[in-house]
Amino acid sequence: MRRVAIIGVGQTKFGEHWSEGFRDMVTEAGAKAIEDANIHGEEIQAGYVGTMASGRLVGQEHIGALLADYMGLNPIPITRVEGACASGALAFRQGFMAVASGMHDVVVVGGVEKMTDLDVSEVSDILGGAGDQEWELFLGATFPGLYAMMARRHMYEYGTTPEMLASVAVKNHKNGAKNKYAQYQNEITLEQVLKSKMIADPLKVFDCSPITDGAAAVVLAPLDVANKYSEQPIEIIASAQASDNIALHSRASLSELRATKVAAKQAFEQAKLTTKDIDLAEVHDCFTIAEIMAIEDLGFYKKGEGGKASLDGKTALDAEIAVNTSGGLKACGHPVGATGIKQICELTWQLRGKADGRQRKDAEIGLAHNVGGSGATAVVHILKQGW
Amino acid sequence: MRESIPLTWRRIPERYRLLGTQCITCNTNFFPKRNICPKCRRKGKIQEKQYAGKGKVYSFTEIYAAPAGFEDQVPYVLAIIELDEGPKLTAQIVDAHIKDVAIGSRVEKVFRVIQRDDPEGLIHYGFKFKLAK
Hints:
The structure holds two protein chains of two kinds.
Chain A: E1 4-11, H1 22-37, E2 46-50, H2 54-57, H3 63-70, E3 78-81, H4 87-100, E4 107-113, H5 120-127, H6 133-137, H7 143-158, H8 162-176, H9 190-195, E5 198-200, E6 203-204, E7 214-222, H10 223-226, E8 234-243, H11 258-271, E9 280-282, H12 288-297, H13 306-311, E10 322-323, H14 328-332, H15 336-352, E11 365-372, E12 377-385
Chain B: H1 5-10, H2 12-17, E1 19-23, E2 28-30, E3 46-50, E4 54-63, E5 76-83, E6 88-93, E7 106-116, E8 123-131
Antiparallel strand pairs in B: 1-2, 1-3, 4-5, 4-7, 5-6, 7-8
């Protein structure tokens, strides 16, 4: 396997983009990443793009061909990859493997979702497809409902409290307030979260990530030629993916994501690192409980201690480990297919030391954790400075 | 998502009667049915298994923001229920407020309308649960 580096990144602002469509956003992000990589279109040999539900959200399938056409990259092969909310990380992993294997040299990877063209209940219905359509969604389950049942078990087993959940949203809004790409660039208080409208007991509206439009893209190349393009290439030192039961009820435990634990173990083995070596992590906080479980399942905190660690500020920008410096899914927004790529963009800016007002001090090694559905897919990547 | 008539018809034994499967090689019960035992795979022997519809609450929530087709039911209690025969499933708990429900509460199956497509469309029936006396 060849060593692989990120040589360029770019993203759109995340938010409600009434005047921009699917192809506008993905081409904007792609063009930014290609410009950042300082390459010519002719050098790109292949592409991968993650999108969860373009067919139902905007009626468009055949996304690979659409992108090749609208990015002006015909006739190179571009392949669409889908793994629900982990579609972005899956596309990134395909790009990584294509370069690592020697099949392609310069590869562009994108993630995109256009979610605001439909009303909320239709979008909720479509996102439900990330779970078990016949045995969860049909019977009245929603994604907030599934994560609420995880939260209930986590509270029952470990004494996690609504305040602990709320502290995740407060911290992520604090980070998001300093990110010009974030959907919500405002701080919120613990009281605001606790008093917000109930969505699925015990999760309130401020425990939930929003519906978002957005796209993100990166350019990959072999590490040994990466410095030809970038003064600060970022090396991908681990890429791991794991699966679990599609339906939440089929799993032995609701208070952990087994797929995250498996992927994290493999990733740390590949990188020959431990959790102590990680300076910052972008984790999949689709709901506040998801971040608490993630920091436990990734190994940063013992099972059951993630809630207290969050409330005690141990995941803040200047703490032992900075979690979700971008604002996470909660504040930066969650355009489903774009999220996994946005995490890579954020880590790249942080490791380059160019994360503006939210720079993590001495950031050298970062971890990205992207989850599909209620945990049926988990993907972990570890990145480090490659110069 | 609006279901087709054949899809709904195909699911009737499971949805109406809680008919699942079991692997008699490793003695594991499945609901909803599985055609391949994840433990034994090709060595597994799958046969039908009828569930009694009694169990206890493993986790629960109350849904306030409903997906399409459930808007007129909010708020409703949704739970993961552990059947006495072993498998867990997701279902609504009817005739109860969230304050009446706890992890470990005994429940039993009832037959109910799950959702309606539209006033002239298909009515989908299936299982919900209620607190056992």
